[in-house]
Specification:
- There is one protein chain.
- The protein has 109 residues and is of the alpha+beta class.
- It is built from 3 helices and 4 strands; from the N terminus they run βαββααβ.
- It has one domain: 2-Layer Sandwich (Alpha-Beta Plaits).
- The model has no long low-confidence stretch (mean pLDDT 91).
Protein backbone atom coordinates (compact mmCIF):
# COMPACT_ATOMS: atom_id res chain seq x y z
CA UNK A 1 0.00 0.00 0.00
CA UNK A 2 1.15 3.53 -0.81
CA UNK A 3 -0.26 6.97 -0.18
CA UNK A 4 -0.20 10.00 -2.45
CA UNK A 5 -0.18 13.43 -0.83
CA UNK A 6 -1.22 16.19 -3.24
CA UNK A 7 -0.94 19.85 -2.29
CA UNK A 8 -2.18 22.69 -4.47
CA UNK A 9 -1.28 26.32 -3.91
CA UNK A 10 -4.51 28.08 -4.84
CA UNK A 11 -4.72 31.37 -6.75
CA UNK A 12 -5.43 34.32 -4.43
CA UNK A 13 -9.08 34.60 -3.44
CA UNK A 14 -10.13 31.35 -5.16
CA UNK A 15 -9.94 28.77 -2.36
CA UNK A 16 -13.72 28.58 -1.89
CA UNK A 17 -14.16 28.00 -5.62
CA UNK A 18 -11.60 25.19 -5.66
CA UNK A 19 -13.06 23.52 -2.56
CA UNK A 20 -16.55 23.69 -4.08
CA UNK A 21 -15.25 22.18 -7.33
CA UNK A 22 -13.50 19.40 -5.40
CA UNK A 23 -16.57 18.62 -3.30
CA UNK A 24 -19.15 18.70 -6.08
CA UNK A 25 -17.14 17.38 -9.01
CA UNK A 26 -13.50 16.32 -8.73
CA UNK A 27 -13.64 14.01 -5.69
CA UNK A 28 -16.86 12.23 -6.79
CA UNK A 29 -15.35 11.74 -10.26
CA UNK A 30 -12.11 10.44 -8.74
CA UNK A 31 -14.09 7.99 -6.62
CA UNK A 32 -16.05 6.89 -9.70
CA UNK A 33 -12.68 6.16 -11.32
CA UNK A 34 -11.52 3.95 -8.44
CA UNK A 35 -9.66 6.48 -6.27
CA UNK A 36 -9.60 5.96 -2.50
CA UNK A 37 -9.73 9.55 -1.23
CA UNK A 38 -8.66 9.37 2.42
CA UNK A 39 -9.28 13.03 3.20
CA UNK A 40 -9.10 16.65 2.07
CA UNK A 41 -7.81 19.70 3.95
CA UNK A 42 -7.24 23.42 3.49
CA UNK A 43 -4.52 25.66 4.83
CA UNK A 44 -5.23 29.30 5.64
CA UNK A 45 -3.90 31.95 3.25
CA UNK A 46 -0.34 33.18 3.69
CA UNK A 47 0.85 36.80 3.50
CA UNK A 48 0.44 36.73 -0.32
CA UNK A 49 -3.17 35.46 0.01
CA UNK A 50 -2.23 32.01 -1.28
CA UNK A 51 -4.05 29.18 0.44
CA UNK A 52 -3.48 25.45 0.00
CA UNK A 53 -5.83 22.61 -0.80
CA UNK A 54 -4.37 19.25 0.25
CA UNK A 55 -5.69 15.73 -0.16
CA UNK A 56 -4.50 12.22 0.53
CA UNK A 57 -5.08 9.18 -1.68
CA UNK A 58 -4.52 5.52 -0.82
CA UNK A 59 -3.39 3.01 -3.48
CA UNK A 60 -2.80 -0.72 -3.44
CA UNK A 61 0.31 -0.28 -5.62
CA UNK A 62 2.17 2.12 -7.88
CA UNK A 63 0.71 0.29 -10.88
CA UNK A 64 -2.84 0.77 -9.57
CA UNK A 65 -2.08 4.46 -9.04
CA UNK A 66 -0.86 4.88 -12.61
CA UNK A 67 -3.82 3.01 -14.11
CA UNK A 68 -6.44 4.96 -12.15
CA UNK A 69 -4.82 8.33 -12.86
CA UNK A 70 -4.65 7.50 -16.57
CA UNK A 71 -8.33 6.58 -16.59
CA UNK A 72 -9.31 9.70 -14.64
CA UNK A 73 -7.29 12.13 -16.76
CA UNK A 74 -8.76 10.74 -19.97
CA UNK A 75 -12.35 10.83 -18.66
CA UNK A 76 -14.23 13.30 -20.89
CA UNK A 77 -16.12 14.65 -17.88
CA UNK A 78 -12.75 15.75 -16.43
CA UNK A 79 -11.29 17.18 -19.64
CA UNK A 80 -14.47 19.18 -20.34
CA UNK A 81 -14.62 20.49 -16.77
CA UNK A 82 -10.96 21.53 -16.90
CA UNK A 83 -11.66 23.63 -20.00
CA UNK A 84 -14.62 25.32 -18.26
CA UNK A 85 -12.74 25.90 -14.99
CA UNK A 86 -9.78 27.50 -16.77
CA UNK A 87 -11.97 30.10 -18.48
CA UNK A 88 -11.44 32.52 -15.55
CA UNK A 89 -7.74 31.79 -15.22
CA UNK A 90 -6.03 29.00 -13.31
CA UNK A 91 -7.31 27.99 -9.89
CA UNK A 92 -3.96 26.44 -8.99
CA UNK A 93 -0.66 28.32 -8.93
CA UNK A 94 1.50 25.28 -8.21
CA UNK A 95 1.20 21.70 -7.06
CA UNK A 96 3.30 19.21 -5.15
CA UNK A 97 2.88 15.44 -5.27
CA UNK A 98 4.54 13.14 -2.75
CA UNK A 99 4.38 9.35 -2.70
CA UNK A 100 4.43 8.10 0.88
CA UNK A 101 5.22 4.59 2.09
CA UNK A 102 3.89 3.75 5.56
CA UNK A 103 6.39 2.46 8.06
CA UNK A 104 5.75 -0.96 9.59
CA UNK A 105 4.92 0.73 12.92
CA UNK A 106 2.49 3.32 11.51
CA UNK A 107 -0.59 1.12 11.82
CA UNK A 108 -1.31 1.62 8.14
CA UNK A 109 0.38 -1.43 6.64
Amino acid sequence: MIFELRSYQVAPGRLAELVDNAERFAVPLQQANGFDVVGCWTRDPDEDDHADFVYLLRWESQLARQEHWQRFLSDTRWTERQADTGANGPLVVSETVQILHPTRFSGLT
